[in-house]
User: Fold these one by one.
Assistant:
Number 1:
Amino acid sequence: MGKYGDAAIKATSLVRRGGYHPCDAWKTATKRQFPTQKSAREKGCPRAAYLGLCEEGIVSGVARGNYTRSVLNKQYALEAVQLLCSDRSLASDKNRLWKKALIGEDKTENGQMDVVITLWRNRLIKCKT
């Protein structure tokens, strides 16, 4: 997918190999992904989406915990996962998934769906039954 999705994959790998807290793993992964772009490394929306999924124990191999104070970006990511779990075809249309995840709001996607869809496509998302 995109660079934030790649960062989510790298961060998850760091956590799964051990020794990294999800927040530190995200920082390390984005530093590698965006070595000269500080604003891209510090972008809150994709970080909050990733950490929100980790927080709920939805990312395979990442323990449930307290990783973010985000409410909205976490909510969007969780809603997107729920939608994907019930309709896998949404993974092929980021804009459609985003609009459905907003539940009637009108906002611009800012890397959140890149994180969700990339983790999904790499089979790192656990659907709750």
Note: Residues 3-121 form one domain.
Number 2:
Amino acid sequence: MKKRPVYTLSGGQKQRLTIACALISNRNFILLDEPTALLDQTSQLKVLQTIKNLTSDHKKPLSALWITHRYEELTYANAVAELKNGFLSSWQEPSKFQYN
């Protein structure tokens, strides 16, 4: 696929390519703003699994902070905080998060 023009890639492939490009910097932190937006359910799952795999690699730890409005994505997170009216709530376990 490396010779394919970017415009021929699917939305999910483009998102994973973007994540790969961010990783080239060899940093241990990645910021993702709505990484599953406009993707079909299968592509959403692949992107979330990619993020989870990257953040679970103990040999090369990576922290990911992603912004989302999709509550179903919280199961992939280690911790959740809500930004509301310019204030960030305390971090908590995804299973204990309640939308206010």
Note: The first helix runs from residue 11 to 23.
Number 3:
Amino acid sequence: MIKVGDTLPAATLMEYSEVEGEGCSIGPNPVDVAKASAGKTIAIFALPGAFTPTCSAKHAPGYVTKAAELKAAGVDEIWCVSVNDAFVMGAWARDQKATGKVRMLADGSADFSKALGLTLDLTARGMGLRSNRYSMLVKNGKVATLNVEAAGKFEVSDVDTMLAQVKK
């Protein structure tokens, strides 16, 4: 499992764009993790799935609501990562009113989650391999803090924990 001080693994996430601009076409666009995190402070939170109960009612809304506070404290970008396809993440971004606040990034084949060592096997529930629920503060591609939830919990990856860590 990735730990504080490690560099994020080489991976490509996908992001759905509804408007053309800044080098992005409409539709799914690749996001090279190394290039996108270089020289930036990024708050990343990951969750098992878009449109799932805790993820939709608590996890994502917290980061969307407090995006301005995180950015005022020095965070350049906020990323939400989930093992869903870019189309689902785009629809969830609209549902959560995340546009311009949180980048909803798809890890469709769980390659990023596997490389981090942060997968969750929900095959018995019909959901397959997913991302564990966690948050991390990343500075210039390196993990500065890491908060991994115990199975079925939502206690340490919330926005308030992240905000406190950013302000340290």
Note: The chain has six helices and nine strands.
Number 4:
Amino acid sequence: MTLPTGWEGIEQNFLGLDEPWCHPDQAGVYVLPAPYEHTSSYVLGSDRGPSAIIEASQQVELYDEMLRNEPYREWGGVATIRPLDLGGKVDKQAVDAIDAFVAPHVGTGRFAVTLTGEHTGALGAIRAHARHYPDLCVVQIDAHGDLRQAYQGNPYSHASVMARVVDDGLPLVQVGIRSISPEEIDRIKSTDRIATFFAAELLDPSGPYDGKASQWVPDVVKACRGPVYLTFDCDGLDASLVPALGTPEPGGLGWYDTLNLITALANGPGILGMDISEIAPIEGFVAPQFCIARLIYRILGRIKAGRRVH
């Protein structure tokens, strides 16, 4: 088999897969890199995140010791498209370009994973999925509310991306939030379309869930109003796992709590698409992007297992 034009071979693809496992005609997962950064307000470099994740993924062990299989084989392979060149587009034009980049791969029987830079890029991928799945519920794993109407005068800021999701009429479930403004609190209180689970409530042993995922994960799943689109800002994880972030915050989700949540979503409402954002690589320090590459692979395994449950 020869790869068609525009698809990456073993040296540039996610997981470093050889043919036929990286061929788009066979693969059940498409990885879609859409590096974008324009409004980052603290540490720059998130546009280098997708390439760093793909490079690190080539060191990920392909056997999942918890599922006891190799998820890439269960999917029939993972194909990686050549990164989107935004050509200087920003704000709405960039979001529209990412939408157009992702849309042809939604509803084709493949599972699309969009790798972007700042969280704004996720909006294009979300809109591409929402048009095909009108009952979609967006689950946001994140440290930040991202519900400002605009930030620094820009409604397409990374701090406003979830406000645009809600404006689009999509239900939103937020998990791990621990940095938020009064404006965003007012927005959450003003609508029943947003369910917010603050990190302190979930993870503090003295909180309402005793810090136990077995107690809070069912409530998150119950809040989902339909099949899930997962938008995963890497700062949703604790900064001890992923310190290479544009806007780091302490006190985030741990590795196994995250996998428990993903498993419950996959086995419950199901996950129809996902994106990863906000890795800002630190030169010479590969652990953060390796963590995320491994997490993506583990998530894919749980999504595939969840489809067998359904």
Note: The CA atoms of residues 12 and 55 lie 7 Å apart.
